């Protein structure tokens, strides 16, 4: 990306000094980086332009390529003299006006200089890592991650890119510090704000401080906690999302986002060396429009997800079930999450039930879906219906048995993304019926009550 385009993207936010990775040094991080705010307020300020004919919604720019009126204009665009910051567009794999608008919304929500939206959450994660790492490089990562991310770090990057990863317990700051190599090859500390699926909470400020001492870039997957947590405001450098989940809310699109410094985002779109530009995980403009229309009510949806998850987990615990939820006071990270969370968003919309064995977990899920219609047996999360899956045999199946044990993923762990359809009491009554049926019958037949 040219200097002209980079300067325009970073206007008014470039710090006077930078560390060896090009990001602000710790003493230069503005107060807003650690201040808890309501992201809904920032989103409201990122107002979109009117539609082509004055419509209240922004028009969809569904074109793959864009016309120039003079031959010289095309040359100037390819040289980087004219860019999207001045409403000059070449090709939608590079920049598209509708996708660019969604990126601005995502940057506002996460409190970053810039953001770029991609075709999936995994494409966002992979693109960031490929941009930040070089052959012979090294990553330090949480030992408990989404299975696809774990596979990327443990198997694909070593084979295809000669990039290795050390997986550690990120709650142990000394272990994280020790895992960062003295030879300078460690380029990334990769964590999830709330881990998938065990719901451990990362101490983002402390981990960021440890990483920045050694010039390491902190990348946080915030898919489980949009609105609830703002990792960039807590000190992280880059935030990635699977937009597919809570941000979409409809389980009907696949999408992702990279939110971070303008310098990094622009480098990922560089015509010659940008990971997003050259690998092409482009978001469709129609998808971007759909997501843009849903973002304004994300805060309302998240509050209801979180409220119901807290009520359910509290009641499940009273029934004697082994429930994992950061909103419960006996959760080891309860006070940590409370100290970092943005006000009024609760503790997340996901809870876990440990049924000890996969067979028992499957029987309960079978009853919840097929006997009482409490929710669906399906992967993913953030949908308005409750979604349930046995993590060890589904979304964490890429991990070895040893890795799953190390991460605390038991064979009977049910990950439950709590929806908000129906009334709370209606759904709780269905859950109790299924649980009673499970206790009464060792076989849990696939019939309605």
TrEMBL record:
InterPro entries: Cys/Met-Metab_PyrdxlP-dep_enz, PyrdxlP-dep_Trfase, PyrdxlP-dep_Trfase_major, PyrdxlP-dep_Trfase_small
Keywords recorded for this protein, A-Z: Pyridoxal phosphate
Names of required cofactors: pyridoxal 5'-phosphate
Region (Disordered) residue spans: 1-36
Family: Belongs to the trans-sulfuration enzymes family.
PANTHER family for this protein: CYSTATHIONINE GAMMA-LYASE, TRANS-SULFURATION ENZYME FAMILY MEMBER
Protein name: Methionine gamma-lyase
Origin species: Aristolochia fimbriata
